[in-house]
Amino acid sequence: MEFLFNPYALTLLVSSTMVLGLSFYIGFKLEDSVRWIAFTMISFSLWGFFYGVELTQTSIDSMLFLTKLQYIGLVMAPACWVMFSLKYTGYDNSSSKWVYPSLFIFPILIYSIVLTNSFHHLHYKSNWLITSGPFPMLGIEKGPMYMVQVIYSYFFYFWGTYILWRRFQFANKHYKLQTRLLILGGFFPLIINVFYQTSWFKPYEGLDMTPYAFIFTYFLLGIAILRFNLLNLKPFARDKILEVMSRGVLVFDHRDKVVDFNLAVKKFCLHPEKIKMGQHGEVIFTDRPEILTLLKSSEQKIIESRINGANGEAIIKIEAIPILEGGPFLSGVLLLFDDITAEIKINERLQNQATELQQLNNLKDKFFSIISHDLKGPVFGVKELIHLTQTGLIPKDEFYNMLPEVSRNMEQVSILLENLLAWTSSQLKGEYLQPQKIDLNRIVTGQKSLLERIASEKSVHIEMHGFENTWVKADKNMMELIFRNLISNAIKFSRSNSKIEITCEEIGQDYQICVRDFGAGISPENLTKIREGISFTTRGQNNETGTGLGMLLVKEYLAKNNGSIRIESNLGEGSQFYIKLPIWYAD
């Protein structure tokens, strides 16, 4: 193999060698996605180097042999370019692992045809030696596969370029600069090759200027990579950082169009399919005016917004951060989305617990007041009465006349003590619930008998209806306390010479018991307090005292026995207390 050196060959040999070394260095220096730009440069350097060697040859056989070496780089470069574009833009091939390997099927097929061209002449129909120029060059007649190879090269170049443009058309200034350099770097050699293929520009017959253009372009690109750290900020790494963030990120430019986002932001939007590059903010948040207002604000602000999603209502904190570049002018807005539902609920729960603790503390203070006043007063009064009778200051006949009043006071004290003991048990150590088969008729009749004497002193008649064969599943002691309090309250607020009706009826799988009086009734304000579990006291028709504790225990005990209570009342007309308890069924 003889060598006839000339300026054209030397230019390619020297420049290709330099860029080839530079490309290998870049390939080792950079990682993963960006490394494929080095592989593209290596491919074109191989093409240029062996084309330079071809220009030093004088025989057709040597030229054809070197052509086969050139085609290693020529067919691999377009595939490497597409591979770089996919990896650089962060293409996820986890669900389609065949994509990357398939890029090299067509180059391998074309190269196989080039190697075996002497058997079928599909690539070159014929060859001859051109001697009209300053040095011998290879003349070729193009075959059908030659045009297929040209179309493949152009298609893969435009495909990779489109991937880059599509990904970064709305990106920030840094990514746009990188993308433009990459696209323009390949566009110049492409134009030169079009001129060569159409015979518009040839200094000499048979001389292809495309390798010169590629070597020049990628030499400049290599310098830019090393000197200016071009491509050091890789979108792939940036995507990984954004995707591991639990906060949603949405970046808008000065026209309120999306220029960047992460996948996490889609879970904060009612219409996630609207979030895409170039989409206007008014389209994404058409039903969220508070976010649009935040987007148009030029100040850093934080708002809270509520959305109803598949998992219920969510509370979202949205922070707007203005993006300023080159002075005070606004170039965009960064929106950060964070789900604070759990945090808000924890705060609300803590607030509710604090309120409940305050209510319990107030209730405790009230109970101490009850013990010191409502309990201490009657007991000390009886003690003083007995003392005065023993000393003769009060005659015995007068003492006997006072006994009915003392008895009534002791009845109230008895109910008070029982309620206090029950409440203390529930608050301090809790009750031991013993659900069992209970005869409602016996329970209600027993409490009616206990309180009938107090009722008769007010000429209040207690009637019972519908309690034949009524069995429930509940705790006996709790049921006794519930009906004792309800009947006692009914007596307390009944007018003299009136009645109390206690009825029972079956509704579904429950018994509904109604305790109805025809007394003073309950005001709307006090009804609200009862429903909210707020303790209060009201004196009865004959100035009977109370603690407000009874209704709290009634509601609590009913809830523990799978029951419920509903109250209806009108001032001056009386009250109805409706209780539901589950019917007992034999197992």
From TrEMBL:
Domain Histidine kinase: residue ranges: 370-585
InterPro entries: HATPase_C_sf, HATPase_dom, His_kinase_dom, HisK_dim/P_dom, HisK_dim/P_sf, HisKA_7TM, Sig_transdc_His_kin-like_C
Regions that span the bilayer: 6-27, 34-53, 65-86, 98-119, 146-165, 177-197, 209-230
Top-level division of the source organism's lineage: Bacteria
Example of a GO MF term: kinase activity
UniProt feature coiled coil, ranges: none
Organism annotation: Algoriphagus aquatilis
Catalytic activity line of the entry: ATP + protein L-histidine = ADP + protein N-phospho-L-histidine
E.C. number: 2.7.13.3
Main enzyme class: transferase
Sorted UniProt keywords: Kinase, Membrane, Phosphoprotein, Transferase, Transmembrane, Transmembrane helix
Name the record gives this protein: histidine kinase
